[in-house]
Amino acid sequence: MKAITSVFLGFIFGLGLIISGMTNPDKVLNFLTFGESWDGSLIIVMAVAMGIMMLAWFWVSKKDTPLFGEAFSLSNLKNVDRRLITGSVLFGLGWGLSGICPGPGLVQLVSFKMEFWLFFASVLGGMWVAKKI
Amino acid sequence: MVTEFTPLSAALGGALIGISCALLLVLFGKVAGISGLVKSLFTPLKPDNVWKVCFITGLLIAGVATSLIAPELLEGELSLPPWLIIIAGLLVGVGTSFANGCTSGHGVCGMSRFSTRSWVSTCVFMLVAVITANLVG
Questions:
Q1: A to B CB pairs, distance under 8 Å
Q2: pLDDT digits (tens, 9 = 90+) for A77-101
Q3: Using a CB-CB distance cutoff of 8 angstroms, which residues of chain A are in contact with residue B104?
Q4: Left if phi > 0, otherwise alpha if psi is -120 to 50, otherwise beta: which for B55?
Q5: What residues contact residue A25 under an 8 Å CB cut-off, 6+ apart?
Q6: In this structure, what DSSP letter does residue B73 have?
Q7: Taking CB atoms and an 8 Å limit, are A2 and B51 in contact across chains?
Q8: Cα dihedral: B52, B56, B61, B64 (round 10)
Q9: Over the stretch B80-133, which tens digit does the pLDDT of each residue have?
Q10: Does the pLDDT of residue A5 top 90, yes or no?
């Protein structure tokens, strides 16, 4: 049941990325680049998603366990360390260059364009390297 | 390429993303961070991680369904030379691994939890991405 529900939730997430246009790198780059073709759509996507998530976190703060599960598995990392900052800078560089982050990168694999496969293979390569460092 | 400002579809898409993340948290107590899900593909599959593979499968099904029903919604291309695509991909892979999150994990799920790490990470990667895009674009 959890497996099927997870497929469904992934499906909803993917539809959200597609409908909002976030799978189009130009839409993301036009948000990041200031000029005549500035496109503010991304901030609306994030704001609405965050608003809904705030309600979910509020619910979590009043509960000890999720509806189906033993416990919440949440990050308890607190400190802002050099690894977090370095990682965020590197991610920002890659995202600012390409206009794709991991979610849209996954979804665009189905368009079977060579460039997206090359990108995603490089993401996997980067993750593999990071595990070794 | 010029794109239109599309507030309505952005709000609808954002709502779907938010609902997906919220249900995952409320039902199963899990956080939908896509980079984390992808990273978990590198570890041997344990029963605890099956949902992660399922979630990724769902994302891909959304893409396949769209390409069959409304392929124009999946438009988009990477107008970069191949060597730069590789560099960008490597940076995204290493960066999200070090930072333990990306636009979904830190941006949507973490900031809404008022996590200091997520706010710092998102502000840093947004700022760096804006500078990069303006310098390159």
A1: 467
A2: 999 999 999 999 999 999 999 999 9
A3: 101-103
A4: alpha
A5: A98, A99, A100, A104, B76, B77, B78
A6: G
A7: yes
A8: -170
A9: 999 999 999 999 999 999 999 999 999 999 999 999 999 999 999 999 999 999
A10: yes
